[in-house]
Amino acid sequence: MIPVKNTCLLFLLLIIGVCSEGQAQQARWTEKRAHDWYQQQGWLVGANFTPSNAVNQLEMWQAATFDTATINKELGYAAGIGMNCMRVYLHHVAWVSDPEGFKKRMHQYLAIAGRHHIKTMFVFFDDCWKDDYAPGPQPAPVAATHNSRWLKDPGNRIDSLPLLMDTLHRYVTDVLETFKKDKRILLWDLYNEPGHFGHGDKSWPLLKNVVAWARAVKLTQPISIGIWRDDFTAFNAYQLAQSDIITFHNYRDSASMAGAIDSLQRYNRPLICTEYMKRPNKSFFSSHLPMMKQNRVGAINWGLVAGKTQTNYPQGKPEVLTPPVIWYHDIFHTDGTPFDATETVFIRQMTKAE
What we know:
Layout: H1 6-19, H2 23-26, H3 31-39, E1 45-48, H4 57-61, H5 68-80, E2 85-89, H6 92-97, H7 99-115, E3 119-126, H8 157-160, H9 164-179, E4 185-192, H10 204-215, E5 223-224, H11 233-242, E6 246-249, H12 254-265, E7 271-275, H13 285-294, E8 298-302, H14 341-351
Parallel strand pairs: 1-2, 1-8, 2-3, 3-4, 4-5, 6-7, 7-8
Helix pairs in contact: 1-11, 5-7, 9-10, 12-13, 13-14
Protein name: 1,4-beta-xylanase
Organism: Chitinophaga nivalis
Signal peptide: 1-24
């Protein structure tokens, strides 16, 4: 995310004032409730988590490839450096294929995370990466290619299958009703980067619907839709207006992160950065964690263990097939060895008082 610029702030506030008159907005948490909730959490530090042996969300959540042993091992790596929360993507196809089994596996995941004292932020929808998806065995990753099999949810299929919106409504409602009082769930991230990968305004119907569906359930956890691009003015205004807790993405340097924090603090709500840490962009743990801790901004980097998603490789066409000298994202090898031991020592030092 490019930080929200101060020059856009007044315009955003004006739009938010208009949005606040809608009925869905009446159910938004008050600032006091949001801050009271946040004070109970401690400083939130974590990662976007997909187990290293899953190439995408479906491979993580389908019965045949849901791997509790790997999840337990790798969440143990996170707990060992003081991380206390994970952001985890769901996919509606796993629910459609097996609703009760899917929810059972969510319970299993939450039980494992809970044993490591890790809370979870689940993500429902996503406009990023691949449009084509199907249940069953997932294709192998493309060699040396960043997120080569990551899936949109629902992607362009929402345009060609009008009844899919009804399915998504049942899916979101079923999951939220099942887990609405679960204290192991930190919050619900309703939609990752709406409008991305060329979707633009086509993302509006689902974005507005998922907010309405979530507001129709009496949740004990907050909801959020993270902002990620400052020139998406209308999206930003709506997402900020509908979020109980403000979340955002920023993969740029420390000056950019400082600007984002400064502009978003004016909304007087807790802040969690749900995606950051891109080493080639000068987005480092050493430069960003102290700033976020000082400002009590939650810090959730991408990602945890380098594996089949290959997000340690740079985005774009690979020039070579060997692992990069400087990892793009991720912290650990699959055996628990850190990419950079100075990073894990630093993270542990930053989190030890929490």
